[in-house]
Design a protein that fits this description.
Blueprint (H helix, E strand, L loop, with lengths): L1 H31 L16
Length: 48
């Protein structure tokens, strides 16, 4: 029973994280828009 509850909690957290990441991605795309044309760039994790 506890394992099932933990699994369900994990699934819920995964969905929440995916939604948060999608919202962040959309926000970054909005910030990168220039003159109505999207300019998508790779995120460089080495410079963080």
């Amino acid at each position: 029973e506890a394992a099932l509850k933990d699994f369900e909690r994990g699934i819920a957290l995964t969905r929440q994280c995916q939604q948060s990441l999608k919202q962040a991605e959309l926000r970054v795309q909005q910030l990168l828009q220039h003159n109505g044309v999207e300019s998508l760039e790779d995120f460089d994790t080495d410079n963080t």
